[in-house]
Amino acid sequence: MKTSEFRDVFVRIRSDLLVIDDSIMTDRHHASNGNYEDNDPQNQIGGIIPAFSLSGWLRHGMEKAVHERDGTACHPGEANANFRKDGVYSRDLDAGYHPKGDCLEDEDGDGCVIHDLFGGFGNRPGKVMRRPIKFSPVRSSVDYTRGQAEGHYRRLNRNIVSRNREDNREPLRNTEVDAVANLDGAWHLSFREPKPEFIALLAEGIDYLDAHQTDFMHQLGGARNFGGGIVDCELVNPLYNETELRRVFDRGKGNTKKMDAKDDEWADEYLPEFQSALAERVEDAS
Ligand SMILES: [Zn+2]
Fold it and tell me: Which domain of life is it from (predicted)?
C-alpha cells in the first residue's frame, strides 16, 4: 500500500473556547480601521492560532497512544532542564518515557516513532510539519483545504482579585486575554516522509485526545479551569478528496454514499495495515 498519497492530512478541531495564552495573532487593527471595540458583536476579526500549542497538545496525545501500546516515548524535555531537580523527570521516566534521544542507535537512526515525528537534537526536524490555523469569522472565506477554520476572535477581560480576606475581593488588576470562540476547522499536517506507522499513531493520538478532551492534561491552551481548551477532534478520512473534505464542515450536508464507502475502506483496509506497522515499530523499540 502506498503511503505517499497521505503526505497531507487534516484534523478536524472544534472548540467553544480556546485561549492560546497571549499568542493569537489577529488582524483586528487592520480590520477595525482604528475603531475596534472589544465587545462589539459586529467585530469581523480573524487571526492565526500558532502551531506551538497545538503541537504540544498533539504530541502529548500521541505519547499516550504509544503508552497504550506498552511502548515508551521520548521525553519532550532535555535531561539537564530545571525540572530534573525536583524529581519530575525521573517520575516521567517511570511513567512511560525514555530520556530524549536514548532511542537513537546511531547518528543516522530515526529513533522511536515520537522522535522520528517531532525531532530532537541539533538540527533534526521532526517528520510531521505542524502548521498554524488561520481562522476567520466569515465562513464563506474559510478554505478548509488549506487548513483554515471558522472562529470568532474575542478579547476576554479578567479581573484578578485580591485573595486576602480583609480586602473583600478588591480588584487588583485587570488582564486581557486573546481567545477564539466557536472554532471549527481543519488543522493541516504534512509528513515530510509519510510512513504507515505515522498515520496510525496520528489516528490513535487524535482518538485518545478526543476521548480525554475534558482531562485537564489534554485540554488545549490556557483557561482550562474556566472551560477553555476542551477540543472535539477527529482525523478527517485521508481518502477524501477536496470536495469531500469541504463537505465535512458543511453543517447542512451529511456524508455522501461515496464518503461512507471511503470510511469503510479506511477502517477495514488502510488503518489495520498502518496499525500493524505501528505495532511492529513500538515493539521493536522496546
Ligand atoms: Zn525516543
Answer: Archaea
